[in-house]
Amino acid sequence: MRTRQLADGFFLFLCDMFKDKVVWITGASSGIGEAIAVAFDKAGAKLVLSARNEEKLNALKESLEHSSSHLVVPLDLEHSSNFKELVTKVVDHYGRIDILVNNGGISQRSEVHETSLEVDRRIMEINYFGNIALAKAVLPVFRAQKDGHFLVISSISGKFGFFLRSAYSASKHALHGFYESLYLEEEKNNIRVTIACPGKINTPISMNAVTGTGEKHGKMDHNQSTGMPAEECARQLLNAVEQNKIEVLIGNKEIKAVTLKRLAPKLFWKVIKKQSAT
């Protein structure tokens, strides 16, 4: 009961910040993206819900408290040629875009020696090129408004490499370089960036991860099943946006590895080698 009261109070507080803001969320059909959608809906935002599965997006929209305020816009991060048209559709509908949550992506479960170059390229196309293609399509809107916020869902794997994650980790590292540069260039236009690095979060991301041949991993990893609830991750993400944090680490004890790598790299490598890949 106490937890529910704290959660309700949190969203009432955020209503002042996010009420009627137009928030575009990719990867909204499941996992962290779905939890973010629920959180922003509770905070009174107007949502653009995007992913490949239109049926799931419509079901999510109808389940939200303020469903009539939201818009479903299916997109595929692997095919970005229509992103400018989708941005025009959103702006025509709402008149503006306030926050782009670039959350969509795909994970990996394969060692380097068994991963085809085609799989490496596909992961980079979805997680990096698709991500920044949408950001570049939205950026002119933010610049014209002299206001906007990119919330980028990276990963703790964007801070250091890890077993079975070579291409995934590379794609997340690339996002940091891109968005840190964008932040420095566009701060003068009141455009803000928050790069979020979730650790172990309880989502089905491992189920949809690809193997070295491109097939689905199809397993719920222990690291995901025992991870932080997606709802708590979303709460921390909204809080990071409200506070205009440039970077935020979200998770349990695993996020301490980022600090360990920076302060005691030799110890970090000893510790990280003993961690389970799944």
CATH topology: Rossmann fold
Q: How would you write the strand order of the largest sheet?
A: 3-2-1-4-5-6-9
* Weakly predicted, low-confidence segments: none
| Derived structural class | alpha/beta
CATH H level: which superfamily?
NAD(P)-binding Rossmann-like Domain
Describe the structure.
The chain is α/β, with parallel strands linked by helices and 278 residues long. It has one domain (2-253): NAD(P)-binding Rossmann-like Domain (Rossmann fold), CATH 3.40.50. Helices cover 48% and strands 13% of the residues. It is built from ten helices and nine strands. The chain has helices spanning 2-18, 31-42, 54-63, 83-94, 117-145, 166-186, 222-225, 230-242, 256-263, 265-272; strands at residues 22-25, 46-49, 71-72, 99-102, 148-153, 191-198, 201-202, 228-229, 247-250. The chain has a seven-stranded parallel β-sheet, with helices on both faces. A two-stranded parallel sheet has the order 7-8. The radius of gyration is 18 Å and the shape is globular.
What's the topology here?
Layout: H1 2-18, E1 22-25, H2 31-42, E2 46-49, H3 54-63, E3 71-72, H4 83-94, E4 99-102, H5 117-145, E5 148-153, H6 166-186, E6 191-198, E7 201-202, H7 222-225, E8 228-229, H8 230-242, E9 247-250, H9 256-263, H10 265-272
Parallel strand pairs: 1-2, 1-4, 2-3, 4-5, 5-6, 6-9, 7-8
